[in-house]
């Protein structure tokens, strides 16, 4: 026990002051934006996640001729989920390219283009299909800079919908966050709102490393507020910084992607039902992960709950709990808990499917149990 | 409905085609030679000057074509170039022999795949392209790394895991990068679509550059190779795909792994060329022709370099369980690319026996000095700074990366982003 206490480096992590965070130039530019935009509520407008992603790509393509989009149905079809709508008309077929349905091949091709100095956006129709290409993402993209001794960069963005989707059964409804999140050399982000989507995708395209942007199909059509700041074509969100979506003092909910929305609903219910204030942390960035934000929150609430929709074993929730125990054990009043997807291939029938993924009610009930309310 | 008609529809063309194929194939079929000394020149045509061009005539059996007019069977060269080719092949072999020795002395770790016997491919290609062109290959990459501009000391240094190795000791035998050289990929076949992407980038930026993507006969059965062929032809990408057919994918003979061992025809809709890969001059002529083809906007080509690996697949393979010692001996004694060119240089009186010995000696002593220098190099400092460097582009790293235990977490210094100039641009 003494040993494990000594091995608890929470103090060191907290010591590293926030000022150390916005480090690289592309992050530094954006850092003030994060704190500023909240004061600009007056000029804000509504925008869907889909349009925010589209705007991010269009702006970056406008800015840099090395950026191009390649993927299945991205051009003439306007994108299987319409995320690339209008880009073909605007940028022409040289820069918006329909690929054959050969994930391994076109992922490899875009990686090669990145090695040769271009900044490709490789769209996967969904990340389920990227399993065919995961070797290229990991072995050819993520590892090359290290293996070359730092002489061969690979500026590429892999993006597409990931995780839970409705009624599409097991092969089309899997969450790969833990897979990509475990790979050194990759950066991995999972946007929730429209601002997240735009700011993170733009940062991903500019980042000189391979970045995986894990979107969610069910979020594409949702409207979110876009601040005036976020409407600017210079708006980027730095990696490795989580966002407190809802401040609270009683329990920390650490979550990502679509589950952020579920947690926000659950938090409201917890408030109205039990009068407790849940703090909801939207991770935004999976790799690097903002451990500091989690530790700070747990220090305040004493309770930690991870909410994610991947398979439970060896998953994001497991990682979040492990990190919390390593860095914030002393502040915990109870063992941390997780709500995850169930350990089943996603079933097709609706009632069964509902049992396989986190629901708002389940989050409320499990949080209430931890809160002992 | 469909199923009732399908068998008949399928069967008909097969039956119709069968006699045609039977009638035609024996006539057009001619095997590419692997004779390394099959190129001819008249002694009287060889000028006295070192850099004055003269013509050599390639063997009629240097090439086999598929939907392609063959390259010219004559090649302009100079005495200087021939001597350089000879020097290069001797140097590559000497370096591979050094790697062999160092491995056996247990100074090289892990995997080590040698290209002894295949030197004419790497050397012939390099003599047909410029440093501005691009090349990617598989894990048998030492010779290519050297021909693309890597020094012997940096390559051997890398094999020895030294800080001054070509990849600073981070890549090892299979991962070497240099100007216009993208590795060194250890995943069989993965480099082929990546190579198509490199070529795509050249096309995207309107650069008059050709890309060569090399792979083995084993890799040519990989699905992603065909995916790359499809996109390359579809988008008219300027790339020469090249199968280095050394007859064995690891220990499996080509005909035990491939339903069709005519690798130059496996692009189906891409013109192909089978090349005597033991004759450095045939290789040069073919690649020179292919480069011109690509730059004229005619799209991709599929080449097959017929060659032979003297050693095992890797250092742990004696290379004798799946082929006979006699076969290896026969290739070594009658088809060796170095001996073949040597004989020609003497026959054509490009060099005297003494001059040739001088070149041999020069190549060997250069390699030996470089190897000694590599052995004297220091290994990387076993510090977190070195361990964690270059996982991400400098200055763009996360705040910290995790060590084996949290106390070992490595915090990166605050510094501006320094994007390395990709070798493609340097």
Automatic annotation (TrEMBL), chain A:
It is an enzyme of class 1 (oxidoreductase). Its EC number is 1.2.4.1. CDD domains: TPP_PYR_E1-PDHc-beta_like. One of its GO terms (cellular component) is mitochondrion. Residues 47-222 form the Transketolase-like pyrimidine-binding domain. It catalyses: N(6)-[(R)-lipoyl]-L-lysyl-[protein] + pyruvate + H(+) = N(6)-[(R)-S(8)-acetyldihydrolipoyl]-L-lysyl-[protein] + CO2. NCBIfam families: PRK09212.1, PRK11892.1. The pyruvate dehydrogenase complex catalyzes the overall conversion of pyruvate to acetyl-CoA and CO2. This is Pyruvate dehydrogenase E1 component subunit beta. It comes from Extremus antarcticus. The lineage of its organism: Eukaryota, Fungi, Dikarya, Ascomycota, Pezizomycotina.
UniProtKB/TrEMBL annotation, chain B:
It catalyses: N(6)-[(R)-lipoyl]-L-lysyl-[protein] + pyruvate + H(+) = N(6)-[(R)-S(8)-acetyldihydrolipoyl]-L-lysyl-[protein] + CO2. Keywords: Oxidoreductase, Pyruvate, Thiamine pyrophosphate. Pfam families: E1_dh (PF00676). The keyword Iron does not apply. Its cofactor is thiamine diphosphate. One of its GO terms (molecular function) is pyruvate dehydrogenase (acetyl-transferring) activity. Residues 87-380 form the Dehydrogenase E1 component domain. InterPro entries: DH_E1, PDH_E1_Alpha_Subunit, Pyrv_DH_E1_asu_subgrp-y, THDP-binding. It comes from the Eukaryota. One of its GO terms (biological process) is pyruvate decarboxylation to acetyl-CoA. It is an enzyme of class 1 (oxidoreductase). Its EC number is 1.2.4.1. The pyruvate dehydrogenase complex catalyzes the overall conversion of pyruvate to acetyl-CoA and CO(2). This is Pyruvate dehydrogenase E1 component subunit alpha. The lineage of its organism: Eukaryota, Fungi, Dikarya, Ascomycota, Pezizomycotina.
